Structure formats: C-alpha cells, structure tokens
Amino acid sequence: MAEYAFYTPEGEMLTVNMGPHHPSTHGVIKFVIDVDSEIIHKITPEIGFLHRAIEKIAEKVTYPGFLPYTDRVDYLAAISANVTYAMAVEKLLELEIPKRAQYLRVIAIELNRIASHLIFVGAYSMDLGAFTPFLHAIREREKTNDLFEALCGQRLTHHYIRIGGVSHDLPPGWKDRALEWLDHFEKFIDEFNRLITFNHIFVKRMANVVVIPPEMAINHGLVGPNLRASGVKWDLRKEMPYLVYPELDFEVPVGTGMMGSVGDSFDRLWVRILEMRESAKIIRQALKQMPEGEIRAKTPRVIKPAPNEVYVRTEAPRGDMGFYLVSDGSPRPYRLKIRTGSFTAMTIFEHLKEPIMIQDLVALISSLDIIAPEIDR
Amino acid sequence: MITKEIFEKLKEKFGDDIIRLDESVKDPFVVVNPQKWLEIAKYLHDDPDLYFDFLMSIAGVDYPDENLIRVVYHLWSYKHRHMLVVKVELNRENPVVDSIDSIWANANWLERETYDLFGVVFKGSRNLKRLLMPEDWEGHPMRKDYEEPKEYHGISTERENPVYLFHLVKPPEEE
Which of A55, B118, B156 is closest to B148 using CA atoms? Predict the structure, then answer.
C-alpha cells in the first residue's frame, strides 16, 4: 500500500459531492464522498445522469434500425458495441459472415481499440496532472479518426458494421495509409513511454495505488484490461474466439506488478499500453491476410428472427461486453440487455477495503477507464 | 459442463426446486424456485465442480400475457469455462426474489437496476434503491405497459418537433 499513515477520524465527517460536473469523473457521474480532511472513508457513486433508455428504444425500433444506437452505448469504442449487437442478431438468424467482412470487422475493432486506449492514456495522465501527454495522445487519436472517416464517413459514431457484414470495403489507398500510420504509431508508443509512462514522478503517483487483488476483481465483475491488470489472464479474443481471431497471432498482456504490486494503478495503465501494440500487430496481420470477396452476406429484406434468445460476449476496449437479446418473431427485439464493463467496474467504489485519499480516488476512477454513457446506457 | 449436466447435478441436490430445463433456445436455461434461489446460488458459487465465480448480468424480462416477470441471471466460471443461464419466474403483481449480493459483490447494482426498471423486489438486499431513474420517479419504465408521464416536477417530457419551429414544414393535422 502507499506510504501514508491512516488515522481514525476524530472530527465529524464532511460529505462532499464530487461531480456530476467534475473534470476527473469522465462524464456526468457523481461520487458522494465522506471525507475526514483528505482521507475518504466512504464513497457512494450515483449514476443515471446520462441515462438515455437505450434498452427501451431497442424495443421500439427494428433490428437494423437499432444499429446506430449501439454506437452511442460507448462513444469512444463504437465499433465494439456495433459488432456485438450485429453478432447477436446474426446468431439469432444463423447467418454466416463472409471472410473478408470478418477481417474488416477485426481491423475496425482493433483500430477503435487503439483510439479508445489513446484517450485513456491521455486522460489518465491529464487527471494525474500532466497536460502535454494528453495532447500527444489526442493527436494520434485524430489520425485514427481520419482513417475511420476515409473508411466509412464517420469519425466518432461510425455505424460501420451492418447485420451480415460491413458497410464499405476498403477505399483505394487506405491500406498503405493505415500501414504508414502504424509505422509511425509504434514509434509513438516508445516516445510516449519515454515522455510519461516511465517518468519517475508519474510512476510514484501510480505504483501501489489502490491495489485490486484478482479474487476481488472477479467477484466485482471487473473485466477486460482491469481484470488482466489484476493478473488474471483472460481475453475473450483468445479464450472464446469469435470472428477471425484464431487466425491471428497476438499476445495477451497481464499485470505483473512491474513498478509495485499486481493490480495497482500502474498495471492498469501498462496493460493498456501493451494492448495498443498488440492491436497494431493484429491490424498488420489482418491487412496482409485478408482475402478478396464479398463484404456482406445476403440478409432477408425484413429481419424477423424466430422466437429465441441469445447472449453474445465480445472483448471491447472496456472489457467483456454482452448483449442479451430476446426475440419473439416480430421485426423488433422483445428485450435487449446490454452488459458493459464500466457498469460493473463502478461497483468497486463502495467496497474498497481501506480508506483512500482524494487524489487516489481520481487515479482509481481514471485507471478503471469508466465512461458515463456506458454505465447509464 | 454443459447446461444439461449442470441441471442434472442441481436436480440431484435440490429436487423439485429446480423446475425445468429449456434447451429449445440458443443458450439453454434452467428455471428455479425463487424461494430457494439464494441457497441454489450459494451452491453454484461454492461447489468446486461448478464454481461460478463471475456474475455477468441480471436482466429482467416482462411478459404481460403470462402475467410474469422473468429475471435472467448469466453466470460464468473462469475456472471451468462454462456458462449457466438461470431464470426465476415471478408474479407480475408482486415480484419478489432473494437477493444474491452477499455472494457476488456486483449483484447489488445489477439488482438495483432491475428493481428500478422492472419493480422486482430483491429480498434481503444490502441497499435497494433506484439506480438510473430519480429516486422519486413513479412506475417502472421497462415494463411493457408503462406509460411515460407527461411531466416531471413541472418539466414537460414532450417537446415540439424542432423541424416545425422554422415554419418550413407544416406539422401533420391532428385528427
């Protein structure tokens, strides 16, 4: 644990509202904290400020009509939610997706993962008091947005995935442009590490801060990079492969406690930085191995799956994303439940074993990579 | 283990409290007695052959035709890599089921969400309050027969279509 002395509260606790409009809560989330001077003894998160009733909307629109809404579940990683929903509908329809479309999906997912993690590393360093790395990260993320714009026309809420495939094939020259950017990006990661990741002050600020042991992480339903940072080697892309991930060669980075202990805030950053490298590797391989062919399967004019229910999970940048979809034979979903990584990650705040300092709460919020739209849906 | 094997194992232990197994859907599910759910859940979590350590999601589904609300639990075991879908069937008028937040720590929020949106009461919950909607909200919005209130604290929930504000397009005549 960090090297500060804890003491029992003597005076009265002060209850402070941190948020909903607080720069370090990443969107509109409120934390009601009971503090004694700088030490927090109780955290009660309050959410719902960004609740857009996406699950209710799903019951009112058609199956393809709901696809653009899935972009808004997590606007930093729109493609992942797109793909998960499309895969759920395809599982209902028992649809086979053409190989090329699967590769295009993988490329889009991984490019989006890089973009999302870039925002994470940038915002994380900004929350901990370093502004410059944020601009560096945003600059690179802008390039991924340009690539997406060339690919499908949108920069943020892409709506690139369609039920049965994807909307566009690669435009001419896109492949070379992407490869050129990847060359640049891999060098950028080294630069970024020199600039901030191994910066002595930054490391001191993160190492041993809010250690989450693996049992606690599993019990609280932490998923994705947060779970891996706690030392659990679990990646759905490897363990329950979907799309063409079995044909691609990549590593699953886990937290090793390089600077402190396993599952501390530094590990949560380091796992994501390593993941960006792996994503770049996947994109390179996918661009090389991608076969020619169709980009969309034939789908019925009106999508009307027979009564059934499925649960589909994929590995989104914020971890295990699950869509529970119930159909009743009509052209609209009967019920859709979206299970997101941020939502369950929020439950950890009420159960921290030891009191933490206010600035460590900021580090914890940031390091869990929670974003408000994904919590509230 | 596949769902059928888990079902048989549970049936041996709990007898009639494990009501049925449905294999007609893509992800087969087990229906259990809501009165005994806490006991069953504890067994699912602790038994070394089952060991469901990860509660993935809790979803309510409303079936007004059958006068039922089904609460669907998705469980996963990292150790054995198997999934189990458990359903409990509750009366729509008075839906009550055991809370399992003493077993999985993230259950509390998922239960609060289900309580908020479907009105399912989780007996023995640590803290059962609305999560997404304001605390003084009336009704449970994800129920199929829910009607949106016209206003909330004087704030209208309806608005004119902004397209018609510019008088370029005429709104359709109301009949």
Answer: B156
